[in-house]
Amino acid sequence: MTWKLKLDEEGKPVFQEEKPVYIDPDGKEIALDPPSMYVKIIDLGKENKTRREEADGLSTKLKLFEGIDDLEEWKKKADDSIVAVENFNDKDWMKAEKVEKLKSEMKSAYEEQESNLKRSFTAKEDDYKGTINKKDLQIRTLMVSNRFATSPFFSGTNPKTILPPDMAETYFGKYFRVEEDNNSGELSLVAYDKNNDPILSRQNPGEIAGFDEAMAVIWEAYPQKDALIRGGKKGSGAGGGQGDDEFGTDADLKKLEEQYAAAKEAGDGKQMVALKNRIFDLKQKKAAA
């Protein structure tokens, strides 16, 4: 229900002391003075603006005290400090040279403390870097060195080349990097060619090549590869061909799985990683054969 203008029997506004009479929502009749009300609204608007400006000014000043939890305690300490400075000036008990000496001693103490902190930080930083480098080396040993140590190119009963794993890693290890997935955070081994492009799998298009598949690509691009082939063996042989000689038989796969189970039971994490990678590559090669 809203305010209504009171009308007489003829439908004309009713006035009281030259002021129109209104009926409020409760039915009470009230004579209102619109001109005075308008002036009052204008005045209240101006007053509101003035108070808002004052409030904004106070808010700006209060920002100077942000971070001070106990303003009363802070004010007391500030007053005490002012009194102390005034007494200091009044007494004049310290000569100018003593002030300079005090400033010099304070500066020296600060510089010494800063130097100690820097040395401490540098020592901790070097320690952290050493720990990180050690862990990076351990990760590379697990994910790269073990792959060379178990690769059919360089190890096993009938390796493809005459290169021992350590020598092979010394030269070809530069093509392999341990990288972290930006989304999952998992580590993976990625091979790069001489143009620094990732080597993609031909057996599984769209995926990164596994170690042995990438090693085959890198090996084919190596100019002196023929001189390092064991016994001059090239191409496929009879009775199962290169697939059985290079990548192992079903019996070899079963043997590796048994070795993996034994390593798992013994808690030998390093051996587990090496065997798991070898088993994965064998299964991948056989699936593509």
The helix fraction, in percent, is 55-70%
Average pLDDT: 77
Stretches with pLDDT under 50, minimum 5 residues: 233-247
Terminal residue distance: 88 Å
Main beta-sheet strand count, sense and barrel state: 4 strands, antiparallel
Structural class: alpha+beta
Strand content: 5-15%
Report on this structure.
There is one protein chain. This protein has 289 residues and is an alpha+beta fold. The protein folds into four domains: 4-49, no CATH class; 94-132; 133-227, no CATH class; 252-288. The chain is built from eight helices and six strands. Strands 1, 2, 3 and 4 form a four-stranded antiparallel beta sheet that branches. Strands 5-6 form a two-stranded antiparallel sheet. α3 packs across α4, α3 packs across α8 (269-288) and α7 (250-266) runs antiparallel to α8 (269-288). The radius of gyration is 44 Å and the shape is elongated. Residues 233-247 have low confidence and may be disordered.
Summary tags:
289 residues, alpha+beta, 4 domains, four-stranded antiparallel sheet, two-stranded antiparallel ribbon, 8 helices, 6 strands
Write the layout of secondary structure elements.
Layout: E1 4-5, E2 15-16, E3 19-23, E4 29-31, H1 34-62, H2 71-91, H3 96-150, H4 165-172, E5 176-180, E6 187-191, H5 211-220, H6 241-247, H7 250-266, H8 269-288
Antiparallel strand pairs: 1-3, 2-3, 3-4, 5-6
